[in-house]
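Lay summary. Proteins are chains of building blocks that fold into shapes, and those shapes determine what they do. In this project we predict the shape from the chain. Here is one chain we studied, written as its sequence of building blocks.
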Amino acid sequence: MARFIVVVVILVAIALLANKYLLGGGDAPPVNAKQAATAKDADAKSDEGAAEKAANEAEEGGPAPQLPPVDAEKEAAAEAVASADVETDIVQEAGVDPAGDALEDVKVVGEDVSKMLPAETVQLPDSSLTAGVPGEGDLQLEEVERWLADPKNHVVLKPELPLGLKAGEAEIKGLDENPLTRAKIELGRQLYFDPRLSSDVTISCASCHAPNHGFAADTRFGVGVGAQEGNRNSPVAYNRILSDAQFWDGRAASLEEQAKGPIANPIEMSNTHEACIECLRGMPGYVAQFKLVFEDGLTIDNVAKAIASFERTLVTGPAPWDYYQELDAFQQQYAADIEDLDALKEEDEELYNEYMALKKASEEHPISESAIRGGKLFFSEKAGCTACHLGANFTDEKYHNLGVGMDAAEPDLGRFVVTKVEADKGAFKTPTCRNVSQSAPYMHDGSQQTLEEVVEWYAKGGHPNQWLSEKVKKLDLTDQDKADLVAFMKEGLTGDLPKVAEDRLLPAAEAAKEKAEEELKEEKAEAKAA
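And here is the predicted shape, written in a compact code that computers can read:
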């Protein structure tokens, strides 16, 4: 019965929110007297299942999130919208009294709510999505429960990308299989920064993909549990929303696979998926979130889905080159019109205002003449950079042998290990050039410390080997050309990194238990004193 009341209350909230979305605050749908009477009936019996609710909560590993109480005004509104035309997976069996045992196992989860409410468009990057549950200090269970009880946190989000990246919006990956919601993103944020996913509680996803190191690491190789080093540099975690296959060799087919892999990798988090889930199950805050975000609750696949959802919101902001290109394209198209701005303002004020807005935006995101020359050179045949670094995210998402590391006695064969195709030997995925100045060192093996070294590598044509990509050729570049290319990457392609909250994590299970016991003692003392 208690669960039925929770269902009624959350459906009321959903109906109210749906009414707001769909009717724009207008008149409520007509009242269905029979449904309203049923809702009143259920309310009258709300206390009958309290004992059974407590027993069920204990059996399931912790209390289910509590919804805020419904006041009289909301109850009246609930009666007015009880018959709102909202799709739901919760179906009443014919001939079964809602007060009966048939509804005892009904659960309302985020995936249900997502189906009931219209999707919401969000512009990435959006710091509100990665700011954490509002509050200070360790994240407490009651804060999580209140936050999860708000239906807007379960609404499916349709992301739009910012200037520059927007040109690649059609390439967004993974949302059909794993839709974004605020609740899922927030759960992923907590997991991303939580070292308890590792075997010795020292390594989190952020250990190798840190916000203050361009969502990568400043070490040559990734460093895992017990200070173990891998043999590859940590790739950046931003703008992954435009990519399906992950890692330098593309061995993970999706962001979800990428998120799951390091947990069980012996030189990264060195855990097992089973042990990871057992650890998370010991924290009521995680149990509560997984219960309400995913229909099947806490599983390793859902851990991966949550982390991948958070990573898909890690999108870089527009860079100076993006603003410059917008302005330059306008100036070329309307060259004659902008020769006399006074006349343009008088004859076509709308076009004039558009030009002035583009000019202002570019001035607020300045780019040097050297960087502009470097950008034009980057896109020219002389430098040939766009043979691989093309598109909105400056990467073809393909694999190429640049000769890096191929002079070693036993070189890393990269993509070949995955495909077993001879031509893939020594080939690695093309990284994005956006914000590249913030993620040194470079190349798959971290062997090059600066962008100047990278440009020199390309200029000399890489290191010859039998699998060298045909796209790697010696370049006839002057010292000024090289300096301009570096300026373009440093100045022109550096936008704002997404802002994320690295704290606001759940306390250790022991700490949470001690806090709960302390609060219980205080409540008993207050009751006794009263």
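What the prediction tells us: The beta strands are 120-123, 157-160, 399-400, 428-429.
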